[in-house]
Design a protein that fits this description.
single chain; 361 residues; alpha/beta; 5-stranded antiparallel sheet; 14 helices
Length: 361
């Protein structure tokens, strides 16, 4: 019987020592043979989690309206890159492009680019977007051609690997995955110690066992996007769950079959994520000379784009069941106790203002 990913990880730890959390995540999510995104259909009712585009067509449609407005703010260039990172099943882009047909000039000017590394997901995206001919796939941001760029990414940043540090005896030791006496995966403190200069204020008063998370990969990814926008003009929009200020706490989680499970239990068979530190990403964009926007919640963002009006238009003249479904979809996307407050909307651009955001104070 072939080795499972869990068995291969355990064997590697036996030979080479504990794995930093970031390396464990990379094994689980990107292993070419058994990585989560290489071997499974992950999204939707039959997958492990459901994203906003799968909940309602209104999500992608409203982002399409945002993209048109942003293109107009850029001066309506005759050719531009319309980019999505980690497009999932292609649902967001399908709904976005349908909404964008209200502006034929925008639609004709858009060079649609999907940045995706999973061959399995590429096949699904191609099926979802089969009616569109001007779509290209790239595996890296570096492959995107020079042109004004409007980029969107929904639930993309949270899956990028990150590192955890645990406070022990006034030092912040890296959290790693090792083996217990029964050769099962378990948490151990590694030898790496975080420089205190990398910690937020207040770290000296944090109690023993406190957790700090940092994602160099996430920041590097956003830096590459910021360079693309700074060099070519444009805007980037990221929607993800996270916090506005850098702080402390363990946000690592695993989901399978729409349920939370032990993060070490099923490597490669569950979705691994963490909350995004938007303050750290804001600094990255500012360092590139871009304008950052005041962070909005997903609820605030969608309502300002016209979520209620869109739901009303779609439901006008429809049967009560359809109207109730649309009402429930809008509530799930925007209500504070559902997705509305948990998910944040982070944007930066080459322009001094970006609709519908307010200027940074």
């Amino acid at each position: 019987m072939p080795d499972t990913l869990k068995e291969r990880i355990a064997r590697h730890i036996k030979m080479s020592g504990p794995l930093p959390l970031a390396e464990y995540m990379h094994w689980c999510m990107a292993d070419r043979k058994d990585g989560y995104y290489q071997s499974r259909q992950t999204i939707g009712r039959d997958g492990d989690f459901t994203t906003a585009p799968e909940i309602s067509q209104m999500f992608g449609e409203l982002i399409g309206i945002w993209a048109i407005k942003t293109w107009e703010q850029l001066g309506s260039p005759e050719s531009f890159n319309l980019v999505e990172l980690g497009p999932g099943r292609g649902t967001l882009m399908k709904d976005l492009l349908r909404a964008c047909q209200v502006s034929q000039s925008f639609f004709n000017a858009a060079n649609v680019i999907l940045v995706e590394t999973s061959s399995l997901l590429k096949e699904t995206q191609a099926q979802t977007l089969s009616q569109h001919e001007n779509i290209r796939w790239h595996s890296s941001i570096s492959e995107i051609p020079e042109a004004p760029t409007i980029l969107v990414a929904n639930e993309f940043l949270d899956v990028l690997p990150f590192r955890q540090y645990i406070k022990a005896k006034d030092k912040w030791h890296e959290n790693c995955v090792g083996l217990d006496e029964a050769d099962e995966l378990s948490w151990v403190l590694g030898t790496g110690i975080l420089d205190e200069k990398s910690l937020p204020g207040g770290h000296t008063t944090e109690p023993h066992g406190s957790v700090f998370e940092v994602s160099v990969i996430r920041e590097a990814f956003v830096e590459n996007v910021a360079s693309l926008v700074a060099e070519n003009s444009g805007a980037a929009l990221f929607i993800d769950y996270g916090h506005a200020k850098s702080g402390f706490g363990d946000t690592f989680q695993a989901i399978r079959g729409h349920e939370y499970i032990d993060t070490l239990a099923e490597p490669g068979l569950c979705d691994l994520t963490s909350h995004v530190d938007f303050e750290a990403l804001k600094k990255v964009a500012l360092d590139k000379g871009l304008k950052t926007q005041t962070l909005m919640t997903q609820g605030e963002f969608l309502l300002s784009l016209g979520l209620l009006e869109r739901a009303g238009n779609l439901g006008s003249g429809k049967d009560p069941a359809t109207q109730e479904r649309l009402k429930n979809e809008a509530e799930r996307l925007a209500l504070p106790d559902q997705m509305g407050d948990l998910f944040k909307v982070f944007a930066f651009s080459s322009m001094p203002e970006l609709w519908p955001f307010s200027k940074e104070a």
